[in-house]
Design brief:
The protein is α/β, with parallel strands linked by helices. Helices cover 47% and strands 17% of the residues. Helix 1 packs antiparallel against helix 2, helix 1 packs antiparallel against helix 4 and helix 2 packs antiparallel against helix 3. The longest helix is centred in the first third of the chain and has 35 residues. The radius of gyration is 30 Å and the shape is elongated.
Amino acid sequence: MTMDSRPDASPAPAMPEDLLARLQKIRQDFMAGLPDRLALIHQAAQTWVETGDAVARADLARHSHSLAGSGATFGLPDLSVAARALERLLNEPGAIPPTALRDALQGLEYAATVATPAAPATPLPAAPDLPTQSPLRPVHMVRPEGASGDDLADVLAAYGYALTVFPDAQALAAATEAPEAVILDLNPYDLPPGAALMADAKGRKIPTVALSSTTGFAARLAAARAGCDAYVVKPPDANALVDHLDRLTERDPDQPLRIVIVDDDVTLGAYYEMALQSTGMQTRLVTDPMQAMEAIYDHNADLVVTDLIMPQCTGFELAAVLRQYDGLLALPIVFLTADLDAETYRSAVRTGIDAYMTKPVDLGDLAETVRARARRARQLKALMVRDGLTGAYNHLMIQDLLASEVARARRDGTALSFAMLDIDHFKKVNDRHGHGAGDRVIKGLSRLLHQRLRRTDMIGRYGGEEFAVIMPHTAPEDAVARLNYLRQQFSDIPYVHGDTQFQVTFSGGVAGFQDGRDAKALNQMADAALYRAKNAGRNRIELG
């Protein structure tokens, strides 16, 4: 660990080779498909000229609009200008002189013939830093030799932190690895002002926690003057200490943002998919807007990105349908269009969309717009679907998620496990130590599950002291092994109430998805397995 506080001045990373290759492949696919696009335009033009059919004229305008947007997106500005000129001609009221239509079509053909795609003006957006996926996160502690409390390392390990103890500040400063937090098990009166102000090699402050048996205001003031960010009284309550570590290191258990893209242009849709996936988002591309509703529910979408001009169902019409569903009233919608008309923009705002972006769309702007609005929507949704004490999903939401995951497992042929967990003898905890201690136990189990299970696992508070866990792509035998490991860790965690320490266990039942089982059956099987575990003596995991 270095004490250098200078910020990192390294240049922005180059585009990863795999993403660069995907970008080039998409642009090549667009160029390869350009003759077919032109053929559709000429066919629609011929049908309209021969029949005067309004539908053919509308198809011709739609194809021109699509080519105007995709041409600009893939670095063909002349092609985009020619396609837009044709679209404007078609959108003028009344008859169109044949020579004007012929000239517009010839201009488009020429622009396509000489088209050479330019490199994108801006690189793909980079994925944000995600919490480390390593088993344990480093925390350093300064504790004089001979001091008590050697069991703290085991407690923190259960919550995902690896503790390394140093005998003094000099040994801590000489450490080669920068920790995510530092615990100072020292007399706060021995800490001079600023002694706890430590930084990593990039100049970022390392949060510090004072650990002391002194409880008075003066001791806390001394710790604050030293630069400590939190204060925990010895012997430490494991939940209180981990609460501070989680808060100070901003541990984020959220899953990747889920985005549905609706665009009838497969090549352009893949282009947007690549941009969002490069930032860590999970995407689902829908080329038929009539199938958008199923994809939104199946993907459990946080946001929808949709083109404005599409056959069968326009972006305006899709947004209007989505807003008819109570559960989708708050779903963010981002419009992408080549239309710069002010009235179109006003109509989009009246429809209730959250952002309106004109083509060519800057990939960085798209990623930031989608990420900001999807995160905000998820935060608002969390207030409605998460339990206030634990942050886990509430009963109704975990049931909805289970139904979605069962449908996904059935469609994709993947494994899925569902577990029901229950804290053993929880009533005795409340009776002996009070409801405050009971809440700490419930919160402690929730924290352990969130920090030690995968980011893709879904955790819900089923009710009272009971939890439910959805584990996608997990065989039931693997789920039992994983939960047994967590059960053993949880049983070793000490809880403090006054001068008393106590420990708690939990029991669980696991059921695996099989063809023919729906979410209700999976729930009943896990519940029955939990019942057997409790009857068999508790503190065990049974497989249904």
